[in-house]
Amino acid sequence: MRKSYVAAGVVGLALAGLWYAAGGTRTAAAANRVSAPVAHANLAVYFVHGPDAVDDRRVVTLPEALARGWAVVHETGSVNQLAVENRSPDHDLFVQSGDIVKGGRQDRLLAADLLVPPGSGPVAVPSHCVEQSRWAGRGQEPAGYFAASDKLVVGNALKLANANRDQSGVWANVRAEQEKLSQQLGAVVNAPASPTSLQLALESPAVLARVGEYRSALLAAGADRPGVVGVVFVVNGKVTSADVYGSNGLFRRAWPRLLEAAATEALADSAGDHPAPPSAREVERFLAQAEQPGQPDTAPADRAVNSAGRANRQFRGVDAIPFPELGVVVQREVVDSIQFGAPDAGLEVVREVVQPETAGQARQRAAIYRATQADTRAAIYAAPFDPVARPTRRGWTEGATPAAPADTAGNRLANTRVESGAAVVLEAKDPARNAVFHKSYIRK
Fold first, then answer.
1. Is 102 among the domain residues?
2. Is 53 helix (H, G, I), strand (E, B) or coil?
3. Mean pLDDT over residues 40-51, rounded?
4. What is the DSSP string of 89-155?
5. DSSP 8-state code for residue 79
6. What order do you get walking across the sheet with 302-305 strand by strand?
């Protein structure tokens, strides 16, 4: 059943520090307000209104720049890092965390906000693979660079994996999104050209047709509203995510892709009845709580010791495993558990396949290790390991996930993160303008 409605009332968004204007901090109560929702089916949209904090007249987004030939996203041969080059002589290039770039050797998901100056040369950007197995050009697409970026990350679990620099979590949630969409539509959305590609699944005619229904109902609501700088999405009656920008112009450029991604999530998670959307005050409460730092919720590690005295660890959300014996960090592709011997026993490599690499680039390997279950696979990348987190006789030392890479040289934005028990908030601030360029709220 299709349903559209507008709830009455407008409420101030009481989020101190949500936005920074030139010359100092402005509280959200003074600068922003959230309008009542517009909705279609199980997706409700709340617009955030506020003044422009940045001048966007000389800013171009990645999709716009690629279409105009002003930018190049270079393949580097490293799964988790690409290079963005701004070739415009007079426009800054804005790259948003969650942008999907299509092509190269594998479709990728970008994992940081960047503001790249004109004539920048290549600037590194962290990325995650959203397409497994392929490591060559696809069809007529170039293998050395990415020709388009018309899709955004879909689903909160996938957003969190991207924010946490969790490659295995990204792969797992790409599969989950494809499976949910296929189930909802009664047709396989995986593309024969590359069944693991999230990008190609989002291009499925069946997906586009159903997402188009949400687009037709909601796109106009945010396209021409003056003073809108952000949007909050609610799926099945629960806040899922929000994005707030430094200007109405930046929001307008992002709005169609934001809506498409949220509509795809709503489609994948549709479950019969459409709950009434929460009040604006409830949305306000969620956003306010998301701004409060707190200890993240963590599940206890599962450990067991078998009769041979070897320790096992079940991997749930852990994607980086340092092995000092090999001098590498193992990033899980499909791992249920790995069996460790005593610290001096080392590891037995059963089989190894080395993929092509160029000089100076990180080595990517696929290997099969002796494990508690047959045919357990892990992807290995040559990288420094954390000496504090290493296999032990008990199987694992806590704190194993390596720190996220620092912001790269050439990026004018400072990326920071606040994590509460309910959400992760990613903020990209331009120190030169003393303004927040983009802030993303991701429900945990």
1. no
2. coil
3. 95
4. SS-EEEE-TTEEEEESSS-EEE-S-EEE-TT--EEEEEEEESS-S--S--TTS-SSEEEEEEEE--S
5. T
6. 302-305, 311-314, 337-340
Task: Please list, in sequence order, all residues whose beta carbon lies within 8 angstroms of the beta carbon of residue 201, skipping any fewer than 6 positions away.
Answer: 177, 178, 181, 189, 190, 191, 207
Residue 374: phi, psi to the nearest 5? -65, 150
Place of tokens 């490293």: 78
Q: Which two tokens stand for residue 202?
A: 């989002």
Dihedral sign (CA 52, 164, 407, 95): negative
Q: Which residues pair with 378 in a beta bridge?
A: 332, 367
Most confident of 51-55, 201-205, 323-327: 201-205
Q: Residue 266 belongs to what domain range?
A: 4-55+208-295+405-443
Return the SS3 of 250.
helix
Give which of 61, 75, 166, 58 is closest to 114, Cα–Cα: 61
Whether the CB-CB separation of 236 and 271 falls below 8 Å is answered with: yes
Residue 185: both structure tokens together: 């539509």
User: Is 84 part of any domain?
Assistant: no
How many CB atoms lie under 10 A from the CB of residue 288? 15
Q: Same structural domain for residues 219 and 278? A: yes
Query: Which pLDDT tens digit goes with each residue over 246-258?
Result: 999 999 999 999 9
d(CA 376, CA 332): 10
Distance CA 76, CA 358 (A): 9
The SS3 call for residue 228 is strand
Q: Which residue has the tokens 């800013």?
A: 59
Which strand (E) or helix (H) includes residue 383? none
In 3D, which of 159, 96, 21 has the Cα closest to residue 415?
Answer: 96
Instruction: Give the tens place of pLDDT for each residue, 336-360.
Output: 233 333 333 333 222 222 233 332 3
- The contacts of residue 68 (CB under 8 Å, 6+ apart) are 60
Residue 33 placed within a domain? yes
Count of structural domains within the chain: 2
| Kind and range of the H or E run holding 304 | strand 302-305
* Cβ-based burial of 302 (10 A; exposed 0-12, middle 13-18, buried ≥19): exposed
Same domain, 284 and 307: no
**In the chain, what are the helix, strand and coil shares in percent, each to the nearest 5?**
20, 35, 45
Q: What is the pTM of this model?
A: 0.72
Judgement on whether residues 317 and 290 belong to the same structural domain of the protein: no
Bridge partner list, 293:
none
Per DSSP, helices labelled H in 240-290 are: 248-268, 280-290
Q: In angstroms, rounded to a whole number, what is the distance separating the alpha carbons of residues 344 and 214? A: 58
Give Dmax (Cα) for the chain: 68
Rounded to 5 degrees, φ, ψ at 271 are -145, 70
